[in-house]
């Protein structure tokens, strides 16, 4: 029945909160710089974070959000995270309905907009079945764009669990167009292979058994579709100065660009 957590610790810099949604009253602890937040079985942690946290922890530099389910798109807000340099979003955490078919990945660009000094962005998506509209579903549809915004300081982007969802392709294209300082982009079509360097040693079975780490044949096929989406819609949009790292299923599907 907990409703409020209050902290008056003046030197608190790091806070991890996982549990049922409660009201956070930080007072002297409002200078927290590193926050991890996740809610048990409650949806829309991303929307909560962008609408509530700027006033609660205005001095954040690193924010990590764990979302069990997103049922509404990320909203546009007036308040900004003026100091956030590193944003990490985990969608999934073993809940099959974590990424609903109606969730618009492109709306995450609004979260990037709310972080004007952001330098790195990591999106990790764990799903057993990609149910979004595929970018290959209707070739006549144009890719959408969010106009009049720039991610001027964003240098490093990683999307782990990249898929062929049209809105995820649109998010990636939006970043490539508007992140004017981007240095590296990692798109790994295999969730669970970790972040950073793309290696077969963490995505295949023992001794190169050709058994992919991915949990189902459905997601192996989706990973191949995601590779096709990268080649068709993203590769030509990557500026020469940006290093593109692409990871697919094992047995020869791993690519370095």
TrEMBL record:
InterPro entries: At1g61320/At1g61330-like, LRR_At1g61320_AtMIF1, LRR_dom_sf. It comes from the Eukaryota. Coiled coil: none annotated. This is At1g61320/AtMIF1 LRR domain-containing protein. It holds the Pfam family LRR_At1g61320_AtMIF1. Residues 1-251 form the At1g61320/AtMIF1 LRR domain.
């Amino acid at each position: 029945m907990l409703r409020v957590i209050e902290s008056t610790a003046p030197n608190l810099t790091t806070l991890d909160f996982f549990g049922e949604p409660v009201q956070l009253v930080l007072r002297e602890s409002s200078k927290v710089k590193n926050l991890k937040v996740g809610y048990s079985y409650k949806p829309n942690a991303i929307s909560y974070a962008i609408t509530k946290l700027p006033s609660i922890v205005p001095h954040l530099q690193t924010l990590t959000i764990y979302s069990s389910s997103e049922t509404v798109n990320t909203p546009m807000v007036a308040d900004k995270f003026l100091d956030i340099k590193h944003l990490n979003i985990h969608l999934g955490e073993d809940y099959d309905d974590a990424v609903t078919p109606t969730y618009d990945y492109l709306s995450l660009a609004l979260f990037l907009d709310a972080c004007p000094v952001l330098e790195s962005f990591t999106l990790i998506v764990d799903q057993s079945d990609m149910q979004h509209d595929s970018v290959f579903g209707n070739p006549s549809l144009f890719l959408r764009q969010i106009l009049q915004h720039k991610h001027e300081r964003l240098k490093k982007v990683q999307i782990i669990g990249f898929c062929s969802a049209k809105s995820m392709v649109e998010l990636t294209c939006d970043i490539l167009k508007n992140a004017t300082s981007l240095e590296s982009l990692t798109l790994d079509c295999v969730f669970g292979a970790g972040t950073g360097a793309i290696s077969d040693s963490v995505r295949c079975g023992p001794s190169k058994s050709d058994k992919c780490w991915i949990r189902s044949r459905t997601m192996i096929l989706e990973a191949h579709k995601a590779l096709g989406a990268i080649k068709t819609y993203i590769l030509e949009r990557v500026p020469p100065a940006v290093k593109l790292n692409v990871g697919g299923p094992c047995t020869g599907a791993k690519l370095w660009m």
